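Need Sodium/hydrogen exchanger's 3D structure for a figure. Predict it.
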Amino acid sequence: EEEMFRPNMFFLLLLPPIIFESGYSLHKGNFFQNIGSIILFSVFGTAISAFIVGGGIYFLGRCVFFSSVLCSPSFAFGSLISAVDPVATIAIFNALNVDPVLNMLVFGESILNDAVSIVLTNTAEGLTRENMSDVSGWQTFLQALGYFLKMFFGSAALGTLTGLISALISFFSFGDTYHIDLRKTPSLEFGMMIIFAYLPYGLAEGISLSGIMAILFSGIVMSHYTHHNLSPVTQILMQQTLRTVAFMCETCVFAFLGLSIFSFPHKFEMSFVIWCIVGIYFLLYFLDTFLVLVLFGRAVNIFPLSYLLNFFRDHKITPKMMFIMWFSGLRGAIPYALSLHLGLEPIEKRQLIGTTTIIIVLFTILLLGGGTMPLIRLVDIEDSKPRKRNKKDINLSKTEKM
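Structure prediction for Sodium/hydrogen exchanger:
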């Protein structure tokens, strides 16, 4: 049990530094230039994928293709398995000089997607704990929508407010006004930054909001405002420390993820696993296998939304870019941690969800992650010519070049 992957340890210790560093080091110019597309993919796209996977599991379970799972747990699983973690894909994108728009769409989607997936999973799990027997389907939908909006916007507002408070404190804390100049004591200044980095997560979790969403927006705001009030020593120290800690946390996450394969008794149903990954072949072979629902949900997310966005974008999302975005939907530690966090009964259901999730995670990381570089070279999507700066391009932060 020493090597067991514990959800509480993951969500309280390992995930916050990774998410905060993602927001703090974000290239905000490209991010906000593509913010409409990123929000559409990460919010509506994730919801589409969650409904397809969750609905497929529920209805196929009712058809006795595998163990039946109730409605709310089905959509909870669909939500958690929709979280993408394209760390390997982003590294390959940077190494191959891929189109910066494609790079930012995948990276930006993954940042918000994790938070949205966690909020959707918590929403579905919250509905399972309530008595919904006397509530109609429409009322259930409205209740879930209200819970999601409260979690999403409430957490984002809390993170933004915390970041702005840190900026004000750092701005008014040097000089002779309060007889203290934090810029002359980098250790104290750095300690204050670390406290404000974790503060929104603890506050959000304490009032039943999403700590991940709060700490993400706090990181974005602090890098844009608070960062420029710091001394040069603390600026460099903050950036390098965050990168180091985030790298160590990611390494620990994948180490625990590998060890967790042997840490609990697995319940394996081949039909359940296959239907989860392969849903696209459902249209071709009619009730064939389920490892496809995840890929099918990702396809229904990426392709229709990309065609819709092209009506409003100057820099179009090409079919090759759409295919790479669909292929790069790797699953990581967040889906597995969420699967262990679900309070399903009996224990066999929980083991079934956990086993299926880790198989899907390994399948996408090893097969899709390993095939990304050959696929990019095959479709020839590398950006051979540097793209000219458009008048609409914006640069919002000096931290992007540091």
